[in-house]
UniProtKB/TrEMBL annotation:
Domain Nucleotidyl transferase: start-end pairs: 14-293
Protein name, UniProt field: UTP--glucose-1-phosphate uridylyltransferase
Pfam families the UniProt entry points to: NTP_transferase
SUPFAM superfamilies hit by this protein: Nucleotide-diphospho-sugar transferases
Length: 299
């Protein structure tokens, strides 16, 4: 079977990053700064907005075009970061190295299209806003509040896209989660096709309680205390949009919002979905305690 750490570049050329939420869990900072623009210190010592690290993660896997879903009022602030030069007085004070880096950001910005979500009606709805931009192609989906570190030669996104190429199926990145935190994430069960690597998904469930997870989501061969949670990245075939459209058109909501997980389960029933256990670590920066821990651990 193909070695995912050395697979050829993926044919997936587009990545989608939803960033249109209100960031309520990071209030009051998000009253004045978008959650995705909060800084972390990267391994190169630079203070980078979270969204930059996510964009760089996508580019590391050969992605050529990036769509970022934002609120209408936030388009200008994201454009100012990625697509506009610094004010002249700031540029003059930057070191030559940082002036070059400023140019790098604008070149990166040429790959980016900003997509507007007029109303914030859930993760699934945010993804659906990109239907026209995706244009019936497979695409990479990354969360707007996760950053990643690979333990392999390939980046985390590179691993997921390699699994997509290998299986010719939509792929959900997976991680091992303990039972005490599974209620905070999407959970998946299935049958290993390649031990501790490729899984045929048989069920998805959004934020299960521990009792439900033990009864319905345990994976054969794993310790009873461990489960497979969603890593925060997906390689999806465009048929997902038909399921999203159906749920939106029929106002099928979960906890008041249009969700992605229910549509992924419908896609699984229609054409199958594989899971890939990512050899790496994700950092959830969407809650204060996890953001603080990321500041210590990431760099």
């Amino acid at each position: 079977m193909t070695d995912l750490t050395t697979s050829s570049p993926s044919k997936v050329k587009k990545a989608l990053i939803p960033a249109a939420g209100f960031g309520t869990r990071m209030f009051p900072a998000t009253k004045v700064v978008k959650k995705e623009l909060l800084p972390i210190i990267d391994r190169d010592g630079r203070a980078k907005p979270i969204i930059l690290k996510i964009v760089e993660e996508a580019v590391s896997a050969g992605i050529e075009e990036i769509g970022i879903v934002v609120q209408k009022d936030d388009v200008e602030v994201f454009q100012a970061f990625f697509q506009a030069p610094p004010k002249a007085e700031l540029l003059a004070k930057l070191s030559s190295e940082n002036q070059e880096y400023s140019q790098y950001l604008q070149e990166l910005g040429q790959r980016i299209t900003f997509l507007v979500q007029e109303q914030q009606e859930g993760f699934g709805h945010a993804v659906f806003c990109a239907k026209t931009w995706v244009n019936n192609e497979p695409f990479l989906l990354l969360l707007g509040d996760h950053v990643y570190h690979s333990k392999e030669k390939l980046s985390c996104t590179g691993q997921v896209l390699a699994a997509f190429e290998q299986t010719n199926s939509s792929v959900i990145g997976l991680t091992i989660m303990s039972g005490d935190i599974i209620h905070k994430a999407g959970c998946i069960t299935g049958v290993w096709q390649q031990p501790n690597s490729i899984l045929e998904v048989t069920k998805l469930y959004e934020k299960p309680d521990l009792e439900y997870a033990k009864a319905n989501l345990h994976v054969l061969g794993m310790p009873e205390s461990d489960f497979l949670g969603i890593f925060g990245m997906y390689a999806l075939k465009p048929e997902i949009f038909a399921h999203l459209a159906d749920e939106i058109d029929n106002n099928l909501r979960y906890k008041g919002e249009f969700q992605l997980t229910t549509c992924l389960d419908r896609l699984r029933e229609a054409q199958g979905i594989m899971g890939y256990l990512v050899k790496g670590q994700y950092f959830d920066v969407g809650m204060p305690q996890f953001y603080r821990q990321t500041m210590y651990d990431f760099s």
